[in-house]
Amino acid sequence: MKTNIVTFSGGKDSLAQLILLIERKEPIHSVLNVDVGWEFPWMYDHINKVAAMLESKSIKFVRFNIADKIRYLMFDHAVFGRDEPYKGKLRYFGKGWPGPSRRWCTREKNELKDKYIKSIDGGVSCIGFAADEAHRAESKNLKKQPYDVRYPLIEEGMTEANALAYCREHGYYPEGGSPYDHFKRVSCYCCPLQSIEALRILRIEYPDEWATMLKWDKLMPSINKPFKAGETVNDLDARFEYEKSMMAHAV
Ligand code: SF4
After folding, report:
1. Nearest to 50 by CA among 128, 119, 105, 158
2. Is the CB of 106 under 6 A from ligand 1?
3. Which fold has domain 3-181?
Protein backbone atom coordinates (compact mmCIF):
# COMPACT_ATOMS: atom_id res chain seq x y z
CA MET A 1 0.00 0.00 0.00
CA LYS A 2 1.24 3.52 -0.81
CA THR A 3 1.86 5.89 2.07
CA ASN A 4 2.88 9.58 2.15
CA ILE A 5 6.20 10.67 3.56
CA VAL A 6 6.29 14.45 3.82
CA THR A 7 9.62 16.24 3.51
CA PHE A 8 9.58 19.25 5.82
CA SER A 9 12.41 21.79 5.70
CA GLY A 10 10.77 24.31 8.01
CA GLY A 11 10.02 26.69 5.12
CA LYS A 12 6.62 27.91 3.98
CA ASP A 13 6.17 25.55 1.00
CA SER A 14 6.93 22.34 2.85
CA LEU A 15 4.74 23.46 5.76
CA ALA A 16 1.89 24.41 3.41
CA GLN A 17 1.95 20.95 1.83
CA LEU A 18 1.93 19.35 5.27
CA ILE A 19 -1.09 21.40 6.42
CA LEU A 20 -2.80 20.70 3.10
CA LEU A 21 -2.40 16.93 3.44
CA ILE A 22 -3.61 17.06 7.05
CA GLU A 23 -6.67 19.13 6.05
CA ARG A 24 -7.41 16.74 3.21
CA LYS A 25 -7.19 13.93 5.78
CA GLU A 26 -4.70 12.08 3.62
CA PRO A 27 -2.78 9.33 5.41
CA ILE A 28 0.72 10.43 6.43
CA HIS A 29 3.28 7.79 7.34
CA SER A 30 5.76 10.32 8.69
CA VAL A 31 7.18 13.80 8.34
CA LEU A 32 10.91 14.05 7.67
CA ASN A 33 13.30 16.85 8.56
CA VAL A 34 17.07 16.89 8.02
CA ASP A 35 19.01 19.57 9.90
CA VAL A 36 22.42 20.53 8.53
CA GLY A 37 22.94 23.00 11.39
CA TRP A 38 22.68 26.17 9.32
CA GLU A 39 19.13 27.23 10.15
CA PHE A 40 18.23 30.67 11.48
CA PRO A 41 17.87 30.32 15.28
CA TRP A 42 14.22 31.30 14.85
CA MET A 43 13.69 28.22 12.70
CA TYR A 44 14.41 25.80 15.54
CA ASP A 45 11.55 27.24 17.62
CA HIS A 46 9.32 27.09 14.58
CA ILE A 47 10.20 23.43 13.90
CA ASN A 48 9.51 22.62 17.55
CA LYS A 49 6.10 24.27 17.20
CA VAL A 50 5.34 22.10 14.15
CA ALA A 51 6.65 19.04 16.04
CA ALA A 52 4.16 19.75 18.85
CA MET A 53 1.32 20.10 16.33
CA LEU A 54 2.27 16.75 14.75
CA GLU A 55 2.45 15.07 18.14
CA SER A 56 -1.04 16.33 18.97
CA LYS A 57 -2.26 14.57 15.80
CA SER A 58 -0.21 11.41 16.42
CA ILE A 59 1.80 11.96 13.23
CA LYS A 60 5.34 10.59 13.38
CA PHE A 61 8.06 13.24 13.04
CA VAL A 62 11.51 11.97 12.07
CA ARG A 63 14.37 14.43 12.59
CA PHE A 64 17.95 13.81 11.52
CA ASN A 65 20.71 16.13 12.67
CA ILE A 66 23.83 15.99 10.50
CA ALA A 67 25.37 19.27 11.70
CA ASP A 68 28.57 17.58 12.96
CA LYS A 69 29.11 15.73 9.69
CA ILE A 70 28.48 18.88 7.65
CA ARG A 71 30.96 20.86 9.77
CA TYR A 72 33.54 18.11 9.29
CA LEU A 73 33.02 18.00 5.51
CA MET A 74 33.22 21.77 5.24
CA PHE A 75 36.47 22.26 7.13
CA ASP A 76 38.32 18.99 7.77
CA HIS A 77 37.51 16.39 5.14
CA ALA A 78 40.63 15.32 3.20
CA VAL A 79 40.16 16.05 -0.51
CA PHE A 80 42.30 14.08 -2.98
CA GLY A 81 42.92 15.00 -6.59
CA ARG A 82 40.87 13.18 -9.23
CA ASP A 83 42.79 14.14 -12.33
CA GLU A 84 46.45 14.20 -13.27
CA PRO A 85 48.86 15.59 -12.16
CA TYR A 86 47.18 15.46 -8.72
CA LYS A 87 45.32 12.15 -9.07
CA GLY A 88 45.25 10.36 -5.69
CA LYS A 89 47.28 13.10 -4.00
CA LEU A 90 46.10 15.03 -0.98
CA ARG A 91 45.07 18.49 -2.20
CA TYR A 92 43.52 20.23 0.79
CA PHE A 93 41.22 19.81 3.77
CA GLY A 94 37.57 20.80 3.71
CA LYS A 95 35.04 20.97 0.88
CA GLY A 96 34.50 24.65 1.61
CA TRP A 97 31.39 26.62 0.71
CA PRO A 98 28.89 24.87 -1.52
CA GLY A 99 28.21 26.40 -4.94
CA PRO A 100 25.88 26.08 -7.94
CA SER A 101 27.81 23.06 -9.25
CA ARG A 102 29.01 21.87 -5.81
CA ARG A 103 25.91 21.39 -3.72
CA TRP A 104 27.56 18.81 -1.53
CA CYS A 105 25.42 19.72 1.49
CA THR A 106 22.19 19.16 -0.47
CA ARG A 107 23.59 15.82 -1.61
CA GLU A 108 24.18 14.80 2.01
CA LYS A 109 20.60 15.72 2.89
CA ASN A 110 19.14 13.95 -0.11
CA GLU A 111 21.12 10.76 0.46
CA LEU A 112 19.74 10.50 3.97
CA LYS A 113 16.24 11.29 2.80
CA ASP A 114 16.41 8.70 -0.01
CA LYS A 115 17.69 6.06 2.38
CA TYR A 116 14.82 6.72 4.76
CA ILE A 117 12.10 6.71 2.09
CA LYS A 118 13.48 3.54 0.50
CA SER A 119 13.27 1.84 3.89
CA ILE A 120 9.47 2.41 3.98
CA ASP A 121 7.50 -0.12 1.99
CA GLY A 122 5.27 1.81 -0.46
CA GLY A 123 6.67 5.17 0.70
CA VAL A 124 5.69 8.10 -1.54
CA SER A 125 7.89 11.17 -1.23
CA CYS A 126 5.84 14.39 -0.94
CA ILE A 127 7.86 17.41 -1.99
CA GLY A 128 6.68 20.98 -1.44
CA PHE A 129 7.40 22.54 -4.83
CA ALA A 130 4.91 25.35 -5.38
CA ALA A 131 2.75 25.64 -8.50
CA ASP A 132 4.83 28.56 -9.79
CA GLU A 133 8.02 26.50 -9.64
CA ALA A 134 6.59 23.34 -11.25
CA HIS A 135 9.64 23.12 -13.53
CA ARG A 136 11.60 21.82 -10.52
CA ALA A 137 9.52 18.64 -10.61
CA GLU A 138 11.07 17.90 -14.01
CA SER A 139 14.47 17.18 -12.42
CA LYS A 140 16.02 14.02 -13.86
CA ASN A 141 17.20 13.01 -10.37
CA LEU A 142 13.65 13.04 -9.04
CA LYS A 143 12.34 11.07 -12.01
CA LYS A 144 14.82 8.26 -11.52
CA GLN A 145 14.04 7.64 -7.83
CA PRO A 146 13.05 4.04 -6.99
CA TYR A 147 9.99 5.36 -5.08
CA ASP A 148 6.98 7.43 -6.17
CA VAL A 149 7.15 11.20 -5.84
CA ARG A 150 4.25 13.64 -5.66
CA TYR A 151 3.89 17.39 -5.36
CA PRO A 152 0.78 18.34 -3.34
CA LEU A 153 1.13 22.11 -3.88
CA ILE A 154 1.38 21.67 -7.65
CA GLU A 155 -1.65 19.33 -7.53
CA GLU A 156 -3.52 22.06 -5.63
CA GLY A 157 -2.28 24.93 -7.84
CA MET A 158 -0.82 26.67 -4.78
CA THR A 159 1.84 29.27 -5.55
CA GLU A 160 4.65 30.37 -3.22
CA ALA A 161 2.67 33.48 -2.21
CA ASN A 162 -0.45 31.36 -1.59
CA ALA A 163 1.64 28.96 0.51
CA LEU A 164 2.89 31.74 2.79
CA ALA A 165 -0.61 33.17 3.17
CA TYR A 166 -2.01 29.70 3.87
CA CYS A 167 0.60 29.06 6.59
CA ARG A 168 -0.15 32.46 8.12
CA GLU A 169 -3.87 31.65 8.18
CA HIS A 170 -2.89 28.64 10.28
CA GLY A 171 -0.84 30.67 12.75
CA TYR A 172 2.69 30.23 11.37
CA TYR A 173 5.24 32.88 10.26
CA PRO A 174 3.34 35.83 11.84
CA GLU A 175 3.96 39.17 10.14
CA GLY A 176 6.78 40.94 11.95
CA GLY A 177 7.93 37.71 13.56
CA SER A 178 9.81 35.50 11.12
CA PRO A 179 12.60 35.65 8.51
CA TYR A 180 9.86 35.91 5.85
CA ASP A 181 9.60 39.57 6.88
CA HIS A 182 12.94 40.01 5.10
CA PHE A 183 13.31 37.17 2.60
CA LYS A 184 11.13 35.66 -0.10
CA ARG A 185 12.68 32.25 0.56
CA VAL A 186 14.20 31.00 3.78
CA SER A 187 16.79 28.23 3.82
CA CYS A 188 20.29 27.94 5.32
CA TYR A 189 21.36 31.44 6.35
CA CYS A 190 24.86 30.86 4.98
CA CYS A 191 23.79 29.52 1.57
CA PRO A 192 25.93 31.04 -1.23
CA LEU A 193 23.09 30.34 -3.66
CA GLN A 194 20.96 33.13 -2.25
CA SER A 195 20.92 36.47 -4.06
CA ILE A 196 23.32 39.32 -3.36
CA GLU A 197 20.33 41.36 -2.22
CA ALA A 198 19.39 38.65 0.30
CA LEU A 199 22.99 38.66 1.59
CA ARG A 200 22.88 42.45 1.92
CA ILE A 201 19.75 42.11 4.05
CA LEU A 202 21.25 39.23 6.04
CA ARG A 203 24.22 41.40 7.02
CA ILE A 204 21.94 44.10 8.40
CA GLU A 205 19.14 42.07 9.95
CA TYR A 206 21.11 39.05 11.20
CA PRO A 207 24.51 40.38 12.30
CA ASP A 208 25.29 37.34 14.47
CA GLU A 209 24.85 34.91 11.56
CA TRP A 210 26.84 37.24 9.31
CA ALA A 211 29.64 37.35 11.91
CA THR A 212 29.71 33.54 11.93
CA MET A 213 30.06 33.52 8.13
CA LEU A 214 32.93 36.03 8.30
CA LYS A 215 34.66 33.78 10.81
CA TRP A 216 34.15 30.64 8.70
CA ASP A 217 35.30 32.46 5.60
CA LYS A 218 38.74 32.84 7.10
CA LEU A 219 38.93 29.09 7.82
CA MET A 220 38.10 27.99 4.27
CA PRO A 221 40.70 26.11 2.24
CA SER A 222 42.19 28.68 -0.13
CA ILE A 223 41.14 26.71 -3.22
CA ASN A 224 37.48 26.96 -2.15
CA LYS A 225 37.67 30.41 -0.65
CA PRO A 226 35.28 32.30 -2.95
CA PHE A 227 31.78 32.31 -1.49
CA LYS A 228 29.83 33.76 -4.39
CA ALA A 229 30.83 34.75 -7.93
CA GLY A 230 34.53 34.89 -7.03
CA GLU A 231 34.06 36.98 -3.89
CA THR A 232 34.65 35.86 -0.31
CA VAL A 233 32.26 36.76 2.51
CA ASN A 234 34.89 39.24 3.70
CA ASP A 235 34.98 40.78 0.18
CA LEU A 236 31.20 41.11 0.26
CA ASP A 237 31.35 42.63 3.71
CA ALA A 238 33.77 45.29 2.51
CA ARG A 239 31.63 45.91 -0.58
CA PHE A 240 28.42 46.32 1.44
CA GLU A 241 30.20 48.65 3.87
CA TYR A 242 31.48 50.72 0.95
CA GLU A 243 27.97 50.91 -0.51
CA LYS A 244 26.67 52.08 2.85
CA SER A 245 29.28 54.83 3.07
CA MET A 246 28.47 55.94 -0.48
CA MET A 247 24.77 56.11 0.40
CA ALA A 248 25.61 58.18 3.48
CA HIS A 249 27.57 60.63 1.30
CA ALA A 250 24.72 60.80 -1.21
CA VAL A 251 22.26 62.03 1.45
S1 SF4 B 1 20.16 25.65 1.13
FE2 SF4 B 1 22.26 26.00 0.33
S3 SF4 B 1 23.61 25.69 2.09
FE4 SF4 B 1 21.61 24.75 2.62
S5 SF4 B 1 21.76 22.60 2.04
FE6 SF4 B 1 20.92 23.69 0.27
S7 SF4 B 1 22.70 24.29 -1.01
FE8 SF4 B 1 23.45 23.71 1.03
Report:
1. 128
2. yes
3. Rossmann fold (3.40.50)
